[in-house]
Amino acid sequence: MDLHMLNHPVPQETMPQTSVLFSSILRPSCSAEVQPGMGERGGGADGSGDLIFQDGRLISGSLEALMEHLVPTLDYYPDRTFIFTFLLSSRVFMPPHDLLARVGHICLEQRQQLEAGSEKAKLKSFSAKIVQLLKEWTEAFPYDFQDEKAMAELKAITHRVTQCDEESGTVKKAIGQMMQGLLLSLAARGQLQELREKFRTPAVDKGPILKAKPPATQKDILGMCCDPLVLAQQLTHIELERLSSIHPEDLLQIVSHMDARDKHRCRGDLTKTYSLEAYDNWFNCLSMLVATEVCRVVKKKQRTRMLEFFIDVARECFNIGNFNSLMAIISGMNLSPVARLKKTWSKVKTAKFDVLEHHMDPSSNFCNYRTALQGATQRSQMANSSREKIVIPVFNLFIKDIYFLHKIHTNHLPNGHVNFKKFWEISRQIHEFMTWTQVECPFEKDKKIQSYLLTAPIYSEEALFIASFESEGPENHMEKDSWKNLRTTVLNRA
């Protein structure tokens, strides 16, 4: 469905059949413009009233007016991009069940006016629009209804709107389908415990205890997969699987609750942002796995081969559009225990690695990465195959970008209005992110390789340094002191 079609007024008698809301509005180019015939409520394009428009775009309004703008009337149905943005951003100001209660109150007031006029056809048309709004809400944000208060409000509203539907039962049927879809979504959420086990943090291996490095025959990543492209594809499988469990409200919640003293943790209910926590942990585990695979290799020649292999894997990740795995691999190779292996690195052909580091250079706010991400995004938008649609951004940078938008723009303007222009932009970026999470991975899954990547023991930081110093001894006084302290600590612990 073309986005501009979403701005046309909804016919009174027949409501459009909506697929999942994301499929119709989650496009990076969503304009959120108000077209003639929309039936603007609360103010016109000149800025009169409690809603302010600029060049056809809603930029601010009182919270009360925005809530009223959400609720349909006989001759008005809200733009779907507005529905998504307001439902997403409203939780900054009130919990979903409070908004739903207010929506129900506005609906009841309108219903009473229509009942007073004894016009059943209009009453039925209005009821159908209310059900359509609730359907879009339950499809876009089903987990709002895990809350008992929200579910109670939903049932109360649907009970009221079905009172006009005694003859044909079309409204009741639509409500039944909506509730069935909602319950299926909530049941899927109930399987989160299984995902937690699947996404568990790999076991941390304490590593070698001074000269007790693993034998050369021990299984390593090259023993599981020697093709860089195949490993990059399996990493992409894991990334997309984890991304698919992230929801837009999770992203807004973690941004809204970030603590300035610890910018990667959420102060709120961590059960609500578990998918984000798991995804963040995955990045760290992949970095440590790369470092472990390199440091635990006994022979320099094999370590050189391991480094060159991961460089090739990182390059394939770049070509696929998997920037999160790319950054994790580069981070792992830049960890001190790996970076200090100068004799090993001297044997590595680093030209390809230098190019990759250039793409992920943090200078100028990761300008090179953002250029590459923009290119991948454009490719994705014009793609005909799933292979070309893949875009997996560096997750921490995405969160920081949203957080930056959240911090530099106030929620309210001096006149008390909600700064809706800010929430349009945050919503637009979250829209774009959600389109990327819904891409189906086109690569064949290899369960053995994925199992290794997800469950292989990784060395602790201390173990990495021990293995690194055993491979290549300390070269300066600082390293000698560190090595001495490490040996003393380990021997005393033993």
Task: Describe this protein's structure.
With 494 residues, the protein is mainly alpha-helical. 61% of the residues lie in helices and 4% in strands. The protein contains 24 helices and 6 strands. The protein has helices at residues 21-25, 63-70, 80-89, 96-116, 120-140, 148-161, 170-189, 192-198, 221-224, 228-243, 248-256, 274-295, 300-320, 323-333, 336-339, 342-345, 351-359, 363-382, 386-389, 395-408, 420-437, 447-455, 461-471, 477-493; strands at residues 51-54, 57-61, 204-205, 258-259, 262-266, 458-459. The strands form 3 sheets. Strands 1-2 form a two-stranded antiparallel ribbon. Strand 1 (51-54) and strand 2 (57-61) form a beta hairpin. Helix 3 (80-89) packs across helix 21 and helix 4 runs antiparallel to helix 5 (120-140). The model is unreliable at 1-48 and 259-271 (pLDDT under 50).
Care to give the gist of this entry?
The chain contains 24 helices and six strands. It has 494 residues and is mainly alpha-helical. The chain starts with 20 loop residues before the first helix and ends with a helix.
Number of strands: 6
Q: Oligomerization state of this entry?
A: single chain
The overall pLDDT, averaged over residues, is 82
Number of helices: 24
* Fraction of residues in helix: 55-70%
Low-confidence stretches: 1-48, 259-271
- Main sheet summary: 2 strands, antiparallel
Strand order of the main beta sheet, please?
A: 1-2
Q: Which structural class is indicated by helix and strand composition?
A: mainly alpha
Shape annotation: elongated
Radius of gyration: 27 Å
Strand content: under 5%
> What is the first-to-last residue Cα distance?
66 Å
